[in-house]
Amino acid sequence: MAEHLIDLLIGGALVSAGAIVGTPLRFFVARIVGQRVGETFPWGTLVVNVTGCFVMGLVAAYARKHGLSGSSEYWLLLATGFLGSYTTVSSFSLQTLALARGGENRAALGNIVLSVGLCLGAVALGFAGGMR
To answer: What gap in Å lies between CA 35 and CA 28, rounded to an integer?
Structure first.
């Protein structure tokens, strides 16, 4: 029982440590991209999610190559903590809804297609690159 509690606390600390880096990085990347290209379309969120998916592919490939599970310290720190706080499906969803409600149906559909397509492609590229 005590060993399980210690593992749980260590896991929570690793997830928190990853999130301490991922959350502000998401804020800065999304803000900088938005300021540079404009915020009428959610480019910042798109860039965050695509880059996060690419890194997730690298992380997943590394984990597979080294036989690491989803409960390994490596996975908890990078995938659950860092990438879990860096990428943001909730922001993507809210921004897409706002576009649709604002009558910008083509932009909303474009955001869905770009986000899903680019994120799937990025995670596949990251995984393929990480398996080399």
So the answer is: 10
Contacts of 26 (CB under 8 A, 6+ apart): 48, 85, 86, 87, 88
Q: Range of 86's domain?
A: 2-130
3-state secondary structure of 34: helix
pTM confidence score: 0.86
User: What is the tally of structural domains in the chain?
Assistant: 1
Q: Is the pLDDT of residue 109 over 90?
A: yes
76: its two tokens: 């908890």
Q: How confident is the model at residue 22 (pLDDT cuts 50, 70, 90)?
A: very high
Each residue's pLDDT tens digit, 52-79? 999 999 999 999 999 999 899 999 999 9
User: How many of the other CB atoms lie within 10 Å of CB of 54?
Assistant: 21
CB-based contact 89:97 (threshold 8 Å):
no
Contact 82, 22 (CB under 8 A): yes
Distance CA 111, CA 41 (A): 8
**26's tokens:** 């998401």
